Fold each of these.
Amino acid sequence: MAEEATYDVVIIGGGAAGLAASIYSVRAMLKTLVIERTALGGQILYTGEIENYPGFPEPIGGPELAMLYAKQATRFGVEFQYDTITHLELEGPIKKLIGEEGEYTAKTVIITSGGEHNKLEVPGEEEFSGRGVSYCATCDGNFFRDQDVTVVGGGDAAMDEGLYLTRMTNSVTVVHRREELRASKILQERAFGNPKMSFVWNSAIKEIKGNGDVGSIVVENLKTGELSERETTGVFVYIGFHPINDFMIGAIDLDPAGHVVTDIQMQTSVPGVFAAGDVRTYSERQLANAVGDGVAAALAAYRYISEG
Ligand code: NAP
């Protein structure tokens, strides 16, 4: 007798994209498993208050929203498994996922493993995370109204988010390790032309200090070695973002930055395998987009199975 897949859909990652996909998948009567390595919710677990998610006129706590997603998925019969997937075998109609705790088979796979912001790895970063240290200006900018904040990095994300922060803060100081930016010319022009933005070149943050909340940073001039302390209440870190992709290298096409390549229906290079949210190429890295991507991926998986 031919081998049968245990699940119609296995979703790797229980963040917003994965949980949204699971709700649509199970409501399409597909047997659905979500595999999560740590805690359901993904990036929103690290967001104190979410103010920009449509439908919530009052801010909602990230962990609270994560719990609501999980509750909704559970109510419809989604199954959950805590495991870390280590590799994928995607050839043929039955996809095999190998984890540290077990093996799983499915007709379709939705990859929603997300990503992680690169960290400065300096003293104070961890301690003040969520209390002045942030990786998301669009999420947290409003908490820094009329304050003097710092952005770290010289790429598109640093300039984009720095410019966004000028709308509500008093000043934005960019600390960058070289004396030229990596960001696109148009963003550079906008940043240099914005009177609220200033630049500290050839410099690196060595320590983030404060008393409960961030109060100052210790900055090293990388050319002279000189250390100085600067007052600031917010440190926004934009030194790159890495997708969580170690388990799929070689099994699926990735873009040069390591994101899963998809079409607009979330189809990857392997038929029956979809990707959604921050792990996919061109993601906007916003909660609403992750949810939308997850829904699109679930609908595409449903079509793939029903057109069989
Ligand atoms: P990125 O382009 O890789 O830039 C990272 C920046 O952080 C660089 O300036 C880099 O310095 C600096 N950096 C890296 N490691 C550091 C460290 N340990 N300490 C201090 N500084 C460090 O990353 P990104 O800005 O997140 O952008 C990622 C991708 O998304 C890019 O392809 C970008 O074009 C795209 N994106 C586009 C937009 C847009 O078009 N509006 C917005 C956001 C992101 P060096 O320059 O010295 O290497």
Amino acid sequence: MKRIEIKNLLERRDYNAQINVKGWVRTKRGSKNVAFIALNDGSTINNIQIVVDRNDNNADLLENINTGASLSVDGILVESTGTGQAVEVNATNIEILGKAHPDEYPIQPKKHTLEFLREKAHLRFRTNTFAAITRIRHSMIFAIHKFFNDRGFYNIHSPIITGSDAEGAGEMFQVTTLDLDNIPRTEEGEINYKKDFFGKIANLTVSGQLEAELAALALSKVYTFGPTFRAENSNTSRHLAEFWMIEPEVAFNDIHDNMDLAEDMLKFVIQYALDNCMDDLLFLSNRLQEEEKNKKADERSMELIEKLKFVLENPFERVSYTEAIDILRNSKPNKKKKFDYIIEGWGADLQSEHERYLVEKHFKKPVILTDYPKEIKAFYMKQNDDGKTVRAMDVLFPQIGEIIGGSQREENYEKLSKRMAEMEIPEESMWWFLETRKFGTVPHAGYGLGFERLMLFVTGMGNIRDVIAFPRTPLNLEF
Ligand code: 4AD
Ligand code: MG
């Protein structure tokens, strides 16, 4: 018999139909006469209840049906007499595909901490929480591609191995085939990269932006969606060494168009989650409320669905960095020295505590900060006439802080090349980027959305290690 997925089976009302369903046992309970098995196949957060009459012949079989075991069940679809489900399956035949020994299988039907589950990353997909996150993650990927496709953007694959540092921050993972026990040296005693695979130093990319710019200067509207790598040693709940970034780049756009695009995109994907992932969102909402039930009322997060709707309903506040510094300098936590980093004055780099203060306490909605000091931003950003600031834009979200970083780009050859020299960006590895400013340069703008930061927001999870299946963080490469 052909297998039917549980998501579809739960919608069916053709009672007495013969069906086959396959999946993993979540729980088994019951009485002397019947056993109830909750089976899940990942197609939905909901389980199908399998009802088995106990008899002399199936005692052994039932003994081996434990949480985590995989089953193929033939049976009859019936209306459920119990609460909690509309339909259930009266089993006529059960085959155990794979046992899971109750003394050994770690994912038992009880509360496990997220920390414990990180140690079991190979099995945590089998929990409701991670299956829900995985389904939402898929939907968000699809929604992002849909958003850009609907607006005539072209997706480009920017390279993963690169010879340049797109952010100029020097936080790159090196890629080499040199024998580290026997490194070839030049006569001067330096490492001879001519002998390396590419004949020069190679790294994993920190951003696909530079290549996206090249494409935008021909195709007008492009975006990348790829893995990016940062060797920053920051062990926080918002940083990964390997994360996914969405980077649109649009010719003829200025910073205002760029902000509109970012706001439209975020609202589109959040609406998409509400329209398509409600079962999983409700599950995660309950999970979060359960987790925070012992917190004081003012320390609890906003209910998840309410929080998502709240972002949809409010225009993002657009504020300059200079205004934000004034607000922060005069804020209570700054005056009372409650911030870890006290804002002394203009020029300070903002930490996530400051970003969250602006969003959560001051404006009480998402904020787009613009026109940052050039010293704290990348070389490629368009320089403002004041000589001090650049046309940067960071989108700040509740709970997250910076979710998007972007800017209008410097399109003037002389200005860009001067800034690169000032910031010691080697022209020999970046000549091709500069050259686009020589041939048919145009104003253009783009941004990068950290996909896992978006996932944190949409799922309400607190740690970035829990919204990607196999997180890469310092000293952590098990799975
Ligand atoms: O602000 P960032 O560094 O900007 C860029 O890389 C630009 N090239 C983007 C562009 O203009 N095309 O990074 C963009 C976003 C951040 O706002 C944040 O959401 C995310 O990427 N991000 C990280 N996410 C997880 N772990 C990390 N270590 C991250 N670093 C940045
Ligand atoms: Mg940034």
Amino acid sequence: MAKPQLKFVCQSCGSAHSKWMGQCPDCGAWNSLQQEASATATPFAQKHSLKAGGRVLDMLPLDAVVELPTRLATGFAELDRALGGGLVPGSAVLIGGDPGIGKSTLLLQAAGRMARAGLPVAYFSGEEAADQVRLRARRLGLADAPVRLAAATSVRDILTTLSAGAPPAMVIIDSIQTMHSDQLEGAPGTVSQVRAASLELISWAKASGSAVILVGHVTKDGQIAGPRVLEHMVDAVLYFEGEGRHQYRVLRAVKNRFGGTDEIGVFAMESDGLAEVRNPSSLFLTHREQAVPGAVVFPALEGTRPVLVELQALTVRLPTGATPRRAVVGWDGSRLAMLLAVLEARAGLGFGGSEVYLNVAGGLRVVDPAVDLAVAAALVSAVLDVPVPSDCLAFGEIALSGEVRPTAHAALRLKEAEKLGFTSALAPPGTKGVGKLSVSPVASVRALVDRLKARA
Ligand code: TYD
Ligand code: MG
């Protein structure tokens, strides 16, 4: 057996280096390199050495008849939706999110509901003692659900336990960072441990037909700690997100081999666990009688589902010489900088001497590119101190030229807006109105500024 070689592995991106450095040259993270034993010396690696020879594989045509397994309902329609229509047997799903966002709560509730529906479910907790999980189950009113529960951190023990009986329909591993595989040296939570433990669990899922759900914690900068390397190993990656202080939580699919991405499920955290929000379209609107400058409603499209959100912009003029702040909650800060530059260059509206704040109300994070025009309208409305009428909304992508470009699914957005009582929309030229909702076409940021100036 070869002597194990030491190497330094970045705990953020997984790249390996021969010497320690303060900053990872691949992802730029500071202090993220940790010494780990190289994986080449294990019996596992030797078994898979090319010299040992392999077996001849059956090669089949693409149209070979395959039986698609029926998806399982998790008991949460919102979770099923994020998964693309239910849990696929034999698949591996990663659920990531900040500590305390509600991953364990969501999965314990789903486990309880599935078990009550007669599906065998196993829950392995590496973070909490079995009694703690039981207490939580009692608080959630699930104490009588026939979920099989164990506190465990050894992948070997878990697989031995699972292999002893019929494979459950769903296995929950909470969390992957606490699991330890004996295929490799190293402490749980390191990149190579997380990778090895996941690989074993995922292979077992494929072989047994059980769906395995891995819980992963996210670091401050929004990456799944260490196991970003995990994202390509699993079939689906869901992020559970939300502003900690807000009640609402959004489960967002960022990768799905069995369905669309950007599909979201919406939940509210209540005293007895997570409740589904079946019709979230107006959830993130703040209710107000009077239009205020800087507030504009945007019909976002999350996957296939329209959600109306309110954008709030505030600009504050500063004395000359002071460095103005730009702060964004719920949107991309560099995209805001770009829009400010476009407004300045193409419409002559300067923000250089002002602080700019942008907030997406309700704690939703907007990723839809059609939000540009709504943000621009909020900024222009704030800086000119002219309100956009409260029954008017805005959407459209803005190019660096200042031109407003058409966006996907305009009709779907407008239909939802009409249902909620909106009567007009600032939208790219060529967009057709829907029912009582009429469209005011906006061709460029200059046209937008002129339109709002005319209202002043
Ligand atoms: P948890 O599921 O433990 O988070 P994670 O597994 O993602 O780390 O969520 C814990 C939080 O949820 C905690 O701050 C309390 C809150 N909570 C409720 O508000 N109501 C409840 O019924 C439960 C079980 C938790
Ligand atoms: Mg947890």
